[in-house]
Amino acid sequence: MGRSRRLQYFVSLFIVFHALHRFNNQDYIIYSFRNNNGDTITQSRRSLSERLLLSSTNNNNTTVHQYEKVIGGEYCKYCPYAKPFESGQLCVDRVNYMKGKYKITEEEAREDQYISAFCNAPYFYDETNVYTEEDEPTVIIHSGPHKTGTTALQAFIYDLHYRNKSIFAEDNLRIPQYDELPGVFAKEGVMLNLPHCSLEKYKNSGGQMNAGMCDRMSYRFPQFMHEAYNKSEDVLFVAEDFDRIAINNDRLRFYLIPYKKVKVIVHYRRLHDWLPSFYNQIVQHYNLIYARAIEDYPSFVDWLIEHYDEFLDAHAIAVADRYRRQHYVTEVDIINMHEVASTSNLIEYFFCSELKANSTCKAIHDGAKPSKSNIGSDHDYERLAIKASLAKKIDIVLDRPILLARATTGLKKKVDRINADETLPRICPPKELLDRILQTEIEQEKKFFPTWFQSQGGEEALRASFEAAVKKKFCSLDDKKILSSGVLDKVFQEFVGDSKDWVL
Q1: How far is residue 150 from each of residues 7, 172, 191, 252, 388, measured CA to CA in Å?
Q2: Please, what sign has the CA dihedral across residues 161, 22, 314, 326?
Q3: Across residues 335-343, what is the average pLDDT?
């Protein structure tokens, strides 16, 4: 193998391993949007596998939407089927290039021999069953958002599938496998390949895959969708990255052809619980970058002040509203995690109550559980350890995962041992921002979960819960004051010798 080929090989391996490492009364539990001139209603769920006849009062709310027709043998802007372009560009990019270079029309560019060979749709697009509206199978997209239990749900689905390949089929649910939805994500992360290939600018939109990498699914995945549709199977996708504002809905709609019913499900988690959890997940992915001083490690307060509006777009209500406004989405459900937690667990509720998947529900009651979940942890002491190391207060560079983990654990233990935690200086978010977050929560729950909101004590109870969360989770260690005052210098000096001793 030549030097260049070896380099390409190792770069490919790095991309794959990096992506894998990256990888968290029922009427008022769910709030349903249905496309009916923007109106919203709450309605009890029906089984997606039973194909029950919708009543006439509901027909207008679950209108089947048509999609742009794709015809076998004709140009298809989203599908380079024969093999990827050498440059990894999609068909639409190639057409635009031809138009600009040769000053020709789009129709003339499509007739180019190269484009015809790569960008004409396969003929399985012409082989699609026709169903009555009530019998149309459905795509179910669980769009997270992040930190609402999607990791555990993904693990549960694939764990159960590997143990019993027929169980989801008994519930008329089709689960995509890696050979049907290929990409950089594998195992329980397979479904993440779809949203990452639906991002507007792929990697430049913060994804893990570029256009050329997504070419791998450009034939097999549409073929999988047609196979499932022609068998009248519902297809389930669970991926938290569907919460991204950069999703190109035209491309995602194309990937979902020929399905005409698309149901989106999101989990609602209160902002005062969700924001600290989301912050902890984000900084966990970058902790070694912070430890190497490539970027500054922001405190939760810094992060909240700078990014609140940005990440509010990834919260359940905003995600639900974005999908509600898409013409191809026929239904959006918001599941209230807090209400579910009082009577059930999210996985049980999702399959037993939301999807009414009887066989899967029975497996859950028989003890089926996920093999993993994405439970976060507070990163305040990790940030302090890194800042102390960069300031030479800790005389070791914490740029290896094991060193950083031991330093973080050891620092917290040593501070607790001298009862210093509660006396350390802290910074808190400004009152104006906290008031804004609380007001947003009040408005969301009054609008989307009014019965549950009142049953929990209304605004007074929510305010008490919010204030408790602020006191416990929203204030960050003031690393600048701690390091400049020397209050923990003696503690920092204990981080010498074998790192195994730091945690004792």
Answers
A1: 35, 21, 11, 20, 35
A2: negative
A3: 93
Q: Can you list the alpha helix ranges (DSSP code H) found in 260-299?
A: 271-291
Q: Give the residues across from 33 on adjacent strands.
A: 40, 332
Beta bridge partners of 261: 138
CA-only gyration radius of the chain, Å: 25
pLDDT in tens, 208-245: 998 888 888 888 999 999 999 999 999 999 999 999 99
pLDDT at 324: 97
pTM: 0.83
CA distance 492 to 230: 65
- Please tell me which residue, 433 or 502, carries the higher pLDDT value: 433
Three-class SS string for 219-252?
Answer: CHHHHHHHHHHHCCCEEEEECHHHHCCCECHHHH
Task: Tell me what pLDDT residue 247 has.
Answer: 96
| Minimum mean pLDDT range among 82-91, 171-180, 311-320, 407-416 | 82-91
Q: Find out whether 294 and 386 touch, Cβ atoms under 8 Å.
A: no
Q: CA 148 from chain center: how many Å?
A: 9
b (16+ CB within 10 A) / e for 439-471: eebbebbeebbeebbeebeeeeebeebbeebbe
Beta-strand ranges (E) seen in 23-107 are: 30-34
Examine residue 145 and say whether the peptide bond preceding it is cis (omega within 30 degrees of 0): yes
Average confidence (pLDDT) over 189-197: 97
Alpha-carbon gap, residue 221 to 206, rounded angstroms: 22
Does the structure show a pLDDT above 60 at 281? Answer: yes
Please give the Cα distance from 477 to 380 (Å, whole number).
Answer: 7
Side-chain-facing half-sphere of 490: CA atoms under 13 Å: 6
Q: Report the C-alpha gap between 149 and 122 in whole angstroms.
A: 37
Residue 11 has pLDDT above 50, yes or no: no
Q: Which of 313, 198, 206 is nearest to 254 (CA)?
A: 198
The Cα-based distances of 145 to 39, 65, 345 in angstroms read: 23, 25, 17
**Side-chain half-sphere exposure of 500, counting CA atoms within 13 A:** 1
Which amino acid would we find at residue 349?
Y
Band of pLDDT at residue 81, cut at 50, 70 and 90 = low
The Cα 24–Cα 375 span in angstroms is 7
Beta-carbon contacts of residue 490 (< 8 Å; ≥ 6 apart): none
